[in-house]
Amino acid sequence: MLRLAAAPKRLAFCTSGSRHYSAASGSTGGKPPSFFHNEANLPRKIEPVPGGTGLAQKEAVPLPPKTHLEGGSGANTAVAGAKPALAVPQTVMPPKPLFADAANTPPPPPPGPSADTSNYFRSYKDFCKGMAYLGVGMGVIFFMFDQHERLDVSERQMQLMKKKQKELVLQMQTYKSKLNKVAVENAKKSVLVQGKMQMHVALLRQQLLDLGADPVTIAAAIDRFEQDVKVDVAPNTVELWVPGESSLKSLIPDPHEYSKKK
Predict the structure, then answer these.
(1) Cα distance between residue 121 and residue 112, in whole Å
(2) Whole-angstrom Cα distance, residue 89 to residue 47?
């Protein structure tokens, strides 16, 4: 086998996808090599793996090597029958699903409330609770104040009622005392008039006895009274009167004459 002085350039692929190259000699002038300078070492292509989402690195089918030299001095030459070194293909497996049946996969749980939302609802709840406590407190204070005012009003009304009742009792007592005085005065007047009339009758009887005549008996006087005297009853007074033209009418004394003072 014949080997040329210029060593073939190897291309290296990193996982990040960037290409690195190294020149064994300065014949290339520092330029990046072409992928097609050596058809025995072609770049590998990435093809999707059927049945998954991952990508697998598939080895390219090498072409038959050439035995002629390319270019002038400094060109790379491949020896006939030389077998290029092939890199081991790396296959990226797709992620396995957690469940065998994707149709029966349960839906993901709904996202919970964020911290800001929780704080907002908590502060709103605390605010509503505080307002409720404030309303209850103000209601209790208003109720107590209203009850206090009602108690004051009822107490004043009770005092005024007691005062009026005392005044009414005093007025009734005064009126009753006046009625009693009037009744006593009327009874006193009647008793005095009756006493004076009785004294007058007694003097007349004494006069008849002195003259030798018998005075009229009480039974005869009552019978004559029932025959000649009429009684008139009024709501407030009782009147006695003698109807017709009787000879005794002019002789009946007036009771008011006995109440007159000399």
Answers:
(1) 13
(2) 12
Quote the mean pLDDT of the chain.
72
Buried residues in 97-121 as b, exposed as e (16+ CB within 10 A): eeeeeeeeeeeeeeeeeeeeeeeee
Query: CA–CA separation, 106 vs 110, rounded Å?
Result: 12
Residue ranges of domains in the chain: 1-103
Question: For residue 259, what are its two tokens?
Answer: 């109440």
In angstroms, the Cα distances linking 118 to 25, 126, 127, 132 are: 69, 12, 14, 21
Q: Which two tokens stand for residue 79?
A: 């020896």
Q: How many residues does the chain have?
A: 262
What does the pLDDT look like over 180-227, one tens digit per residue?
999 999 899 889 888 998 999 999 999 999 998 888 898 998 898 888
Inter-CA distances, 57 with 24, 88, 106, Å: 28, 9, 34
End-to-end CA distance of the chain: 196
Residue type, 196: K
